[in-house]
Specification:
This protein is an alpha/beta fold and about 375 residues long. It has 12 helices and 13 strands. Helix 11 links the parallel strand 8 and strand 9.
């Protein structure tokens, strides 16, 4: 009998695992036949964020007021909370106890006694009024019209809407939302003065989440990746968040004009990359790209990279390893030791203790690194 081998090239996103009680609404199928979901990522702000980030002025994009997310009745969860007001037991309890004249019925053991509605409308003596007929409704991208005015109001203040997939082959994981992008977005919101009015280039932008956040502060953001389907998703996400980023669509999407190339080389001071270090070849390619860009940029710049240290048990080692992460760290060391003519590279880790402005689980395996590129004097 032949040996049975199980193989799967499907990679599952962790966004639905680590954004508690979030709705992920399927809106369409992309050109590859993959389901595309629309998720809302709420910006959670507190009074201390003004002091923590050194924010000044009244720019609502830098320090928006706290809003209630659409479809909930609470004032929001604290950053990093594992509970959300939408669909949470705490909220449900508040709804029950807040009704006038409603009291919890307990059985003889003290447990909650739930009186169920009758299954058949023919019951001659129903305990409750008959159920209303429920008509299924298919929600499309115009979901705000279905969810009402409250959703529209919330989406214009503190909600980022992102289209993404949930499960893809390895080569399409850029269409998913990963925690590294959420961590990088948090850092952008924390260090807002670093991005204010700057020109930013994101490499391997994926769904464009970090670029959308950077565009709320920067003067120009170049959001780049490979593949027309993925770039179309980025373009759609920029359009979904135009209330935050403003309008600035290029005349010829997915291509570079001479003016844009000149602006990129003359003004870029910040480079971003989130969760693109899961494959050694891709990691090598990204560091080679960083090196080529550093040689051509006219100003000193800083590259901000986010990575998740993923632990895997491998049969080749018979142990838990982090091969992709180890290769990433090796590339950092090689870059720091490189003496590339007039350029000097300095690498330093970023302590992930800054405030959390997006609701997700910030695990200790998430890391941020900075690469400073400066001319040798």
């Amino acid at each position: 009998m032949d040996e049975v081998t199980f193989k799967s090239d499907t990679v599952l996103s962790d966004v639905h695992l680590y954004t508690p009680n979030q709705r992920h609404l399927m809106v369409r199928l992309n050109s590859m036949g993959q389901p595309v979901f629309l998720s809302r990522f709420q910006l959670v702000w507190n009074q201390d964020s003004r002091t923590d980030s050194g924010t000044q002025g009244d720019d609502h994009r830098a320090v928006p007021t706290e809003e209630t997310p659409a479809g909930t009745g609470s004032t929001g969860s604290p950053p990093g909370s594992s509970c959300s007001s939408e669909g949470s037991p705490t909220q449900a309890g508040a709804d029950v106890t807040g009704q006038e004249g409603a009291g919890a019925q307990l059985d003889e053991d003290g447990d909650l006694d739930v009186v169920r509605r009758p299954r058949a409308p023919s019951d001659p003596d129903p305990v409750w009024p008959l159920r209303d007929k429920v008509h299924p409704m298919i929600l499309t991208q115009e979901e705000d019209e279905v969810l009402g005015d409250k959703a529209r109001e919330s989406s214009t203040h503190d909600i980022i809407r992102i289209e993404h997939t949930m499960a893809t082959p390895l080569e399409d994981v850029g269409k998913q939302v990963w925690r590294g992008a959420l961590l990088l977005a948090d850092y952008i919101l924390f260090q807002w003065d670093l991005f204010q009015g700057r020109t930013v280039l994101e490499l391997g932008a994926g769904t464009g989440l970090a670029s959308v956040v950077a565009a709320t502060l920067a003067q120009t953001v170049y959001c780049t990746d490979v593949g027309a389907d993925l770039l179309a998703m980025c373009q759609q996400n920029l359009a979904l968040n135009s209330h935050l980023t403003g309008s600035g669509d290029p005349e010829a999407p997915f291509s570079w004009s001479e003016e844009e190339i000149s602006d990129l080389y003359n003004h870029t001071t910040i480079l971003l990359a989130a969760e693109v270090f899961y494959d050694d070849d891709l990691t090598d390619a990204l560091f080679k790209t960083l090196l080529r860009l550093a040689r051509r940029l006219q100003n000193a710049c800083v590259a901000i990279l986010s990575v998740e240290k993923r632990l895997n048990f491998t049969l080749s080692h018979l142990d838990v390893t982090c091969e992709a992460y180890d290769h990433f760290r090796s590339c950092l060391r090689q870059l720091e030791q490189l003496r590339d003519g007039p350029l000097r590279f300095a690498v330093e880790p970023v302590e992930a203790s800054f405030p959390q402005h997006l609701v997700y689980e910030r695990i200790r395996q998430l890391e941020l690194w900075k690469i400073f590129v400066e001319p040798v004097r």
